[in-house]
Amino acid sequence: MACIVPRTWHLAITLNPTYYVRGFHSSRTLFALNPVLRPTTNGSPSHEDATVEDPMFGYCSQYSTPLPNKFVRLHESSKANYPGGADKTVSALQGQLLQLLMRMTRPRRVLELGCFMGYSAMAMADGIPRGATLYTCEKDSKAARLARELFTKEGYDCSSEQSIQKAVKIELLEGDAMSSLELLAKKELQFDAVFLDADKGNYINYFNFILDNDMLAQHGYILADNVLFRGMVLQSHGDSFAPLSPPPSPQLSPKTKDARLEERKTSHQKTACHMDKFNRHVRKDPRVTVAVLPVFDGLSVIMKNEN
Ligand SMILES: C[S@@+](CC[C@H](N)C(=O)[O-])C[C@H]1O[C@@H](n2cnc3c(N)ncnc32)[C@H](O)[C@@H]1O
């Protein structure tokens, strides 16, 4: 099919990048994308706000099978432990999607970069077969400790011994994700599924490292989160970011202009540039096939091509 998006949508997308992902993004993007949403007292929209305030997202959540209550409890615990930062977790709907993808593809070995308090890890772990292993990396020692406590409490096998085939095994690698990747590569481990959700500025490095070191199994795939980053990737062009405000005065010297532009780049804009670069990089890599999906904050499904 040549075009499934109505023409008027193309116009809306061109004029207003935020429109594109509205209704599909994760809770962590709602506030940025939807001016109707207001932050809660701790500064971030809650899962509940998301479903109440955004009609399309609410509709999707309402007609998707909910995750069990332990995920609601985990989100509450994230809010208590990281006031203002609990929205780092994927949304409940995205957790459900990750779990379904695991159930559909039945990976034996999964790798996650960016565990936080374990929400997406637990969602995926509940979808993989018993005896399979999920490795997850986290550099924040408090988040890693809390995630480890949760995994043990919830009955996952967190021992360092070989899996006893009774439970899903979760191995949490605390520290920098790249060091963990190097460690796993040394052990010559290959993964059936990888979920990228750590620092956005390193997505290209993680992607390259995984492929260069043959860490993706033959039919393996990578899921990359936040690839549309609040819809802001539409404003970025590789290294630079096109601000919506008027461009700098033409009288300014290029150096001053650059300095001004640099100043204007908020950390969000920088992240959007990183994601844009990542998307371009992946698209050009002949080793993979990619679909960039406007779901949640943007999710890329990247599959390794047959040799
Ligand atoms: C968006 S959160 C992950 C959320 C998690 N996937 C979930 O849904 O619950 C990103 C996490 O990556 C971690 N992180 C960022 N840079 C990292 C790095 N270089 N190495 C390891 N972890 C990193 C952060 O500490 C943060 O907890």
Tell me the series of helices and strands, N- to C-terminal: HHHHHHHEHEHEHEHEEEHHEE
Name the beta content range: 15-25%
Counting H and I runs of at least 4 residues, what is the number of helices?
13
Number of E strands = 9
Strand order of the largest sheet: 3-2-1-4-5-9-8
**Helical residues, percent:** 40-55%
Our measurement of the CA-to-CA distance between the termini, rounded to an integer number of angstroms, reads: 28 Å
> Which of globular, elongated, flat, extended, rod-shaped describes the shape?
globular
Flag low-confidence runs. Answer: 1-52
Secondary-structure-derived class? alpha/beta
Q: Radius of gyration from the CA trace? A: 20 Å
Mean pLDDT: 81
* Unique bound compounds: S-adenosylmethionine
Q: How does the major sheet shape up?
A: 7 strands, mixed
